[in-house]
Amino acid sequence: MSTEVDGDASLDMAAIFGEQRRLIDHFFDHFDASQASKFVHEIVECAGTVFFSGVGKSGFICNKIAMSLASIGVKSAYLNPLDALHGDIGNCEKSDLLVLFSKSGSTAELLAMVPGARSKNMKIISVTCHECSALANKSDMNIYLPLQRELCAFNLAPVTSTIVQLIFGDTVTAAVMRKLQLTLESYALNHPAGSIGRKLLLTVRDVMRTGSDLSRVSIHSTLHAGVQELMRTGSGCVVVTQGVFLKGVFTDGDLRRLVADDRFDIRGAIENYASKKPLCIQDESMKLVDAERLFHSGSKSVSCLPVVQTRVEGIEVLGMLVLTDTMRALA
Fold first, then answer.
1. How far apart are CA 224 and CA 231, in angstroms?
2. Which element (helix H / strand E) includes 100?
3. Pairing of the two strands 216-218 and 123-128
4. Which of 116, 129, 228, 296 has the greatest count of CB atoms below 10 A from its CB?
5. What interhelical angle do 223-233 and 252-261 show, nearest 10?
6. How many whole angstroms separate alpha carbon 191 and alpha carbon 45?
7. Could you give the percent of the chain with pLDDT greater than 90?
């Protein structure tokens, strides 16, 4: 087999992609969207789990569709046909829905699953590229995906039918999202580790520094002790407290200005150098994405925000939100 591909004038990639587009357009031009509407209804109304099953490449598409639906809160899963025939059909119940993907509609393993599904009184929906097929005839509902031919030169390799299956599955998923009126917050709950999830779910409480991670010195401490605490945590800010109550903050910016002006006593009381009315966060349950804006909300940007709660006795320090920690959490 020749490995030379560069500069092969006989390989017109633009024409090949154009042909693939025309084959996909055939699907869009001839697909009955009302079938998809009924399918969406079945998914939304399913009281149990929507099981997807297919063999080979169709199986990979089924797995992807099941995962996509699960990510928006629909109980769905991929059911391996071979495993189903050897016991896994036991996971299925009457309230479940079985969706079988097969280009030909004659896949032996899927046809063999039908009696087991019937014994469970499951509803069966087949998705095929042939309207009149054995699988369509054995299903409660058949969805026909029009396919003119495969892009494969022999019309055998499923290089177009799988695209059509995926387009159908992903479009149905998007339709289910609209049918369920899924909110961004609900979507985030299923993606806690993703960027969207972090931005919508993380709160100040999740990221703020507390305990030994919190830079804190007593109001009676020296400036020297405050500088040491700055160096210990690297947070860029030290809260000055009397007991648990906030009396001020001292930042590395304050230190730089003192050094530049040469007007400090390293053994002097830190309360003489601390800012007495720092910008604070009053609600530790505030969404982190909202809190991030506070770093730049004042007349000048700050790198740390004490997290506090107001009590009769004074303003209690709960923790400290650091800009670098916040940006890292939201990245």
1. 11
2. strand 97-102
3. unpaired
4. 129
5. 130
6. 24
7. 80
What number is the average pLDDT over the span 241-269? 90
d(CA 219, CA 8): 78
Q: What is the pTM of this model?
A: 0.72
Instruction: Please say whether the dihedral angle defined by the alpha carbons of residues 167, 170, 176 and 182, taken in this order, is positive or negative.
Output: negative
In angstroms, the first-to-last Cα distance of the chain is 47
CA distance 209 to 25: 56
Cβ proximity of 214 and 238 under 8 Å:
no
Is residue 193 over pLDDT 90? no
Domains of the chain: 17-182 (3.40.50.10490), 204-330 (3.10.580.10)
- Distance of alpha carbon 148 from alpha carbon 67, whole angstroms: 28
- At 19-58, the pLDDT tens digits run 999 999 999 999 999 999 999 999 999 999 999 999 999 9
Query: How is residue 291 written in tokens?
Result: 């809190």
Q: Is the dihedral of CA 119, 120, 126, 131 positive or negative?
A: positive
**Most distant CA atoms of the chain, gap in Å:** 91
The predicted model gives 214-227 an average pLDDT of 94
What are the tokens at 111? Answer: 């046809």
Q: Report, as an integer, the average pLDDT of 172-201.
A: 86
Strands (E), 116-198: 123-128, 141-144
| pLDDT confidence tier of residue 301, bands split at 50, 70 and 90 | confident
What value does the mean pLDDT of the chain take? 93
Residue with tokens 């369509």: 136
- CB contact set of 21 (below 8 Å; sequence gap of 6+): none
Q: What is the pLDDT of residues 129-159, one digit of tens each?
A: 998 999 999 999 999 999 999 999 999 999 9
